Amino acid sequence: MKILGLYCAVLSSIGILTCTAQQCGRQQLQNRIVGGFDAEDGAWPWQVDIQTQSSGHICGGTIIAEEWVLSAAHCFPNPYDISSYIIYAGRHQLNGWNPFQSSHRIRRVVIPPEYSDPQEGDDIALVQLDTGVVFSDRIQPICLPNANMFFPTGMRCTITGWGNIRDGVSLQGAGTLQQVTVPIISRSSCQSMYNVNPSTTDPVDIMSDMICAGHQEGGKDSCQGDSGGPLVCPMVNGTWVQAGIVSFGLGCARANRPGVYSKVSSFTSFIESHIPQLRLYGNAGRIRGAAATMLASILTVLVVAHVLR
After folding, report:
1. Bridge partners for 246 per DSSP
2. Of these residues, 71, 102, 222, 227, which one is catalytic?
3. Planar angle of CA 47, 218, 42, nearest 5 degrees
4. DSSP label at residue 185
5. 1 vs 4: CA distance, rounded Å
6. Cα separation, 182 vs 215, whole angstroms
7. Which of 147, 164, 170, 217 has the fewest CB atoms within 10 Å, i.e. the most exposed one?
8. d(Cα 151, Cα 210) in Å, to the nearest integer?
9. Lowest mean per-residue pLDDT among 134-148, 157-171, 194-208, 255-269
10. For residue 304, is pLDDT > 50?
11. Does residue 74 carry a catalytic annotation?
C-alpha cells in the first residue's frame, strides 16, 4: 500500500494521474423534457434543481465540484441579487419525497462580462455554493470537456430536467426528473434549420460558442424550466461528459427548431480562471516525451522495490 501511495503521489505531481477516489461523470447507481420519460432515481447524480423562494423551480444545473455548480447566465438576471436562490442536490422529484437531497444557498454567481442575452452567446454561469455538497451515490460531479474535445454530428446525448413537457404545460404529479436522448446537429445544419421560415421578429444566429441537438422533425427537446441543465454525452469508457448547457430555442420540440446549448468546450478558459483546481476531461492521460520516460523509470523502481522488500 505504501508503494501504491508513492506511485500515486509521484504521478499526480507530474500531472499524469489523479489518484483520488472521486471521479466525475460516473453513474453510481445503474439499476420533462418534451418526448422524454422518467429518469431512474440516482441515474443522473450531477443534476441540481435551482429554485427561488418566490417562484419555486426555475432552472437546472450540474455539480462540477464540491462547491461549484454549472448553469446558464440567463437563470440569474441579476447575479448580484442571489439571496432568494436555493440549490438542491440529490433531488429526484420536484413535489415528492427526496430522502437523499441536500439544499444549499449561493455564495456568488460568475457570468462572462460580455453576456447580455442567450441568443448573443456567453450564456454560462458558475455558481459557488455557500456550503459544499457531500458526494454520495446520488450526488456526483459531471466531467467537463477540454477546449479540444469534439462531439460529432449524430452522437447521441442525453438532456435531463424538470422543465415543461410541452409548450406551456408544466411537469405534473410528483414531478419526476425527465430524460431524453437526442443527436448532436452540426452548426451549419442547425443554422439551415433555423433559416427555414425564419422568424422576422426573432432571427437566430448559431454562434461558435453554441451547440445544437435534436431532430429536424421535432418531437424531442428541452423546454422552459430545463434552462441551465445539461446535455451530456457518453464516452467509450462509460464516463459522461457535459457537451452543452440548455440555453434557448424557439418553442419546444418544433420541426426545424432544435435546442440550442452553450458549448461547454468554448468556455474552458473562463471555467479554469475561476476554478483552477478543476481537471477537465481529456487534459490528463496523454503521456508523451519526457513524461513517458519518467513514468517508465518510476514503474521500474517501484517494481524492483516491491520484489526486494
Report:
1. 261
2. 227
3. 20
4. E
5. 5
6. 7
7. 217
8. 12
9. 157-171
10. no
11. yes
Q: What is the model's pLDDT at position 296?
A: 43
Top pLDDT among 208 and 19 is at 208
**Annotated catalytic residue within 41, 49, 123, 226:** 123
C-alpha cell at 28: 453510481
Region of 299 please: left (phi>0), alpha (psi -120 to 50) or beta. Answer: alpha
Q: What is the pLDDT of residues 103-156, one digit of tens each?
A: 999 999 999 999 999 999 999 999 999 999 999 999 999 999 999 999 999 999
Q: Is the dihedral of CA 145, 146, 147, 153 positive or negative?
A: negative
Nine-digit cell string for 1:
500500500
Q: Over 90: is that where the pLDDT of 257 sits?
A: yes
Query: Is-contact 240 234, C-beta < 8 A?
Result: yes
Cα Rg of the chain (Å, integer): 21
Residue 155 phi, psi (nearest 5)? -60, 135
**Cα(252)–Cα(50) distance, integer angstroms:** 21
Residues 125 and 132: their CA atoms lie apart, in Å, by 17
123 is catalytic: yes
C-alpha span between 187 and 208 (Å, rounded):
8
Whole-angstrom distance, CA of residue 275 vs CA of residue 279 = 9
Residue 190, H or E segment: helix 187-194
Q: For the chain, what's the residue count?
A: 309
Cell of 277: 483546481
- Span 193-241, pLDDT tens digits: 999 988 777 789 999 999 999 999 888 768 877 899 999 999 999 999 9
* Crossing angle for the helix pair 2-13 and 289-308, to the nearest 10 degrees: 170
SS3 210: strand
